[in-house]
Amino acid sequence: MRLEKLVLQGFKSFADKTSFDFTKNFTAIVGPNGSGKSNVSDAIRWVLGEQSMKLLRGKSSTDLIFGGSDTLAKMGMAQVELHLDNADGLFPLEYQEVVISRKMFGDGESEYRINGSKVRLQDILMLLAQAKFGQKSYAVIGQGMITQFLSATPQERKLFFDEATGVKEYQIKRDQAINKLIRTEDNLVQSEALLQEIEPHLKSLERQVKRLEKREKLEIELRDFQIGYYGSIWNELGIEFKNLEAESKAIQQEITTKDAELTELQGASDALAGEASRGERYQQLQQLFNDLLEKKSHLLKEQAVLKGKLEVEHERQGELSLIWLQRKEDELMSDVHAREAELRTTKQKLTADATELTRKDTELEAVKGEFRAEEFEIIKLREQIEQQTHAMSVPQITSELTTIFEEQEQFLRRLLQTQSMNEFKETQAAAKDITKKLATLMDRLTADERDTVESLRVEMKQKEQLLERLTKERETLQNRINDLRVNIASAENSSTFLHSQLTRMQDELSNIQSSIDETERGKDANSKSAQAEEYSKELLQFDAQIERLDKQLVTARADIDSFNQEEENKKTELVSIQSKMRTVQRHLNTAQQKASTIDVNLARVETRQEDVQNELQRDIPEDLHAEIMAYDPANQHLEGNRDVWEKKIISLQHQLDAIGNVDAETITEYESTKERFEFLDEQINDLSSSIGKLEGVIDELDKTIKTQFQKNFKKINDGFQEYFKVLFGGGKAKLELLTETEEEKLEEAEAEKAVEAAMAGAEVSVDVSGESLHDEKERELIGKKKKRQKVVAGIDVYASPPSKKVHNINALSGGEKSLVTIALLCAIIANNPSPFVVLDEVEAALDEENSEKLAAIIKDLSNKTQIVIITHNRVTMRAANVLYGVTMGSEGKSHILSVELTEAEEMIEADEATRN
User: Fold this and answer.
1) How confident is the prediction for the chain on average, in pLDDT?
2) Best CA proximity match to 876, nearest among 911, 909, 835, 840
3) Global pTM?
4) What is the CATH number of domain 322-519?
5) Which CATH architecture has domain 1-139+837-916?
C-alpha cells in the first residue's frame, strides 16, 4: 500500500482545491513559515480520524475551515481526501484504490466516507488498524511530538508502542469484545433479574391456566350435554310441530272442501228456496186459471140465459125437439161427469196440500226446536267464557263479555219470536255485530287467554253458521207454507165453483129430462121458429167458446199441476240438499273442532318453543344455538336419557361455579409471559454461552497481544539501540517494560489527573477506541472494562550518550532528546513500517551533522516505506526525491508548486533572512 494523492479544499489555509501527488518514496514539502505547509500533516491526521483540536493546532472545529481573508469570503465546509493504493490488499476491501474522505460543515458535524459510501468513525479506525496505522500511530509525527514523547508518562508511551508493535488491531478487537462482554454481563444480570421477577407471576398464571383448562374441559362437556338436552327437546318439538302442521294442513283442506261443499249446497238451496219469480209465476198461473173459470162461469150464465130464452121460445111454440133434448142431456151428462172428476181432483189436491202444509208446520216447529237447542249451546258457551275470563282476573273483559252475551241472548229470543224474513235478517245482522264485538274483545286478551277464548270463538262461529243455515231453512219453509196456503185457497175456490156448477147442471139435466119426457108424449119437436134458430146458433157459439175455455182451463190446470209438481220436486230436492247440508255441517263442525284442537296444540308447541328459545337466550351461549337447532338424534353419542343429561348439566354448572370465573385474557397473558420466560431463559443460556465465548476470545486476544507485543518490542528495542549508536556515535540505550500493582495504578491515575489539571487548555484523554471520557456512562463502562483487562504496563526509556553516565532522559539536552526520539522512531519504522510516514519538522533541533545522519537514515527507510517530510533542512531536502513548495499568496490562501532544490534553498534563505 502507498499514499497516492492528498486532496484538500477549504481546509485551513487551503481554500482552493489542492492536490498533492506522491509518486516517489521520499517527498519533501518546503515553504516559508506561515505558508501553511504544516497544514498538510494536519490534514492527513484529520482525515484519519483525529478528534483532538490541540494536536490539530486549533481551538474549535470551525478553525479547520478556511476563515476567509480581506479578499476571500469564509468557506462553509472543509474536505480532505486521502487516495491510497490497495493493490497489495492491505485493506480488506475489493478496491484497487481506497479513498478515505472527511467533510466538516460549519456546525461542526463531520461526515466520513470510504469510496463515496458513508461510514462511521469506528469503521475508519478499524480499517486503519488492520493496515497498521492510524491517527495515533507513528504514521504522522507532527511538530512538538518529538519532545512530547520523552516527556510523556510510561503509560502514554505504551499507547504509542501499541501502534508500533502492530497490536492495535487486536486491542480494538479485544476492547470491542470486552465492551460486548460487559454489555452481555449487564444483559445477563438484567435477564436474570427479570426472570426472577417473572417466575412467581408465571407460576400464578400457570395455576390460573390450569383452572381455565379445567373450566374449558367442563364447558366442553357441558356444551355437549346442553346440545343433547336442549337439542332433543327442540327436535321433538320440531317434529311435533311439523306433524301438527301436516294435520292442520290436512284438516284445513278438509274444512275448505267441506266449506266449499256446504257453500255449493247452500247456493243450490238458496237458488231453490229464494226464487221470488216462482211465486209470481204461480200467482200468474192461478190468476189465469181463475180468470178462465170466471169467464167460463160468465159464458155459462149467458148460455143458461140464452137456453132459458130458447126453452121459453120452444115452450111458446111447442117446438122442442126430442133429438136436441137428448143431445143436450148428453152434453150435460158429460159436463156433469167432467165436473165431478174435476171436483174429485181438486179435493185430492186440497187434501194433499193440507197434508203438506201440516208437514211443513211440523218441520218449522223442528227448526224452532233446533233454534232452542242452539240457544242452550250458546248459553253454555257464554258460561264457559265467563268462567275463563273470571279465571283470568280481567274484570273489564268479563263485564264486556257479559254485555255481549246478554245481547246475544236477546238476539236469540228475538229470533225465536221472528215471524217475517225481514226480522230474520235484522236479527242475523245483530248476530254478526255481536261476533265482531267478541273478535275486538279477543284482540285485547293475552296470548294464553286468546287461545282459550279463540277455541270458544270457533265454536261460536260454528253455531252462528248453523243459525244462519236454520234461518235460511225457515225462510224456505215459510215460503213453501205460503205457497201451499195459496194453493189450498185456490183449490177451495175451484171446488166451491165446481159444486155450484154441478148443482146447476144437475138441475138443468133434470129439466131436460122432463122436457124429453114431455116430447115423447107427443109434442112436435121439429117446429122451430126463426127466433129459436137464432138462439140455437148462439148456443152453438157459446158451446164452442165454452169448449175452448175448457181446453184453456185444462191447459191452465195442467200448467198449475206442472208448476206444483216442479215445486214438489224442488221441495224434495231442497229437503235432500238440506239433509246433505246438515251432514256436511256436522262433518265441518267435527273438522273445525279438530282444527281448533290442533291449533291449541300448535300454540302449546309454539309456546314451548318460545320458552326453550328464552332459556337458550338466557342460559346458553349464542354460539351453541345453531347446533341445538340443527340437532340430529342419529348423531347423538351421550349415554343415558334426557333426565340424566339434565342432572349432569346441573352438576357441571355447580362445578363451574366452584371454579369461578377466569379471565379469558389469562391464557394470552400466560402464553406471552411463558414465551417471555422461555425467551429470557434461552437468552440467559445464550448470554452465558456468549460470555464464555467472549472470555475465550478475550483470552486469546490477550495472548496474541502479549506475544506479538513482546516479539516486536524486542525488535524495536534492538533497532533503538542500533539507531542510537548511529546517531550518537556510540553510547547505550534501551527500552524497559514496567509492571504495576493495583495500588501503583491508582497512584499513577491520581498523578495523571494532577498533570492534566496543570496543563493549560488540557485535552481530555482518548482511549484506544478514540471515545471521550466526558460521558459518565462511558466512563463507567471503561471502568468496568479496565477491571477485566490485564494490568497495563508502561514503557520507560533509558539513554546514555557516549562519555556520559545518564539514566534519566530528562537530564539530556534538547538536541539529545530529539536524537533519542528520532532513534526510537527510526527503529519502529524499520521494524514495523507503516504504509507511509509523515514527518513534520522532526529535525528542526538538529545540527547539520546530525541532520545528515538523519537524512541518510530516512533515505534508507524510504526503501521500506513511503516518507513525506515537511522541513526547512537543506540536507533533508537534498535527500528527497520530490520537492513541493508551499507559499502564501496575497489573498491569504496557500498555493503549491513543484520546485528544484536550488529554488527550495532560495526559499529557505529568504525565510531565514526575513526572520533575522
Assistant:
1) 78
2) 840
3) 0.46
4) 1.20.58
5) 3-Layer(aba) Sandwich (3.40)
